[in-house]
Amino acid sequence: MLTRPIPSTGAPLPVIGLGTYRSFARYTPQLARVLTLFFDAGGTLIDSSPMYGGAEAVCGDVLKEVNGRGTAFLATKVWTSGKEKGVHEMETSFRNMRAGDTMELMQVHNLIDTDTHLDTLKGWKAEGRIKYIGITHYATSAFKDLGKYIRKEPEIDFCQFPYSIEQRAAENGFLQLCADYGVATLINMPFEQDGLFNSVLGAPLPDWAKDIGIDTWGQYFLKYLLANDAVTCLIPATGNPSHMADNLKAGTGPIPDQAEQKRMALYFDSL
Fold this sequence. Notes:
Blueprint: E1 3-5, E2 12-14, E3 18-19, H1 30-40, E4 45-47, H2 55-66, E5 73-78, H3 83-96, E6 103-108, H4 114-127, E7 130-136, H5 143-152, E8 158-162, H6 174-180, E9 184-188, H7 195-199, H8 217-226, E10 233-234, H9 241-249, H10 258-270
Parallel strand pairs: 3-4, 4-5, 5-6, 6-7, 7-8, 8-9, 9-10
Antiparallel strand pairs: 1-2
Helix pairs in contact: 1-2, 1-9
């Protein structure tokens, strides 16, 4: 699978990750197959949150089942206010995800009590409890606030936000801002929670899609995003092995150039 460097360290990160919102809310036997496919294809980053119901604990259980902790790049979030509550929540996440002594990435979710949690995370990073610090938001309307933190906090390694072929607000300077400040990007909701598939229901892929290694609409949507070099890793959520396999294919083969990306957007908009 294609990798891209984490700007703050240069470490390679596979471009297709795995989200757990809804898809890991409850344990099902097929989740072990999902993680096995993911790791076998070179995937590493798994993103979760305390707000995703039981997803952290389910993720930890399935990681144990497939003996995957040594391969996984675990990312989760702090989603509360106050230093003590934040520390308690993050300690619980460590246990639920079976992270061990070190979590790869801890993110401040939706910019809740950001300054307080960043202070804690800077200390944890210095101690080696986490490797990377991130901030997140689910709304494009938060780009201004995310940008303020990126500009003033050099210890922020990752920023997670929404971006899709339908919702392109990140292309209006925000992706470039992340690149300029050396911040890795995690892209959530690349399928608009499956809304994109409804938009193209019954529509054929263009004939030229095969020239850039695209066989399905899912690959079309993901490769469109990877055409932007400022995108580090996509984190579509799935608990379905066939969907996992399809997502992984988007991280292989040719990546569209800027002209091809524009052509992809124009075709999508015409449907």
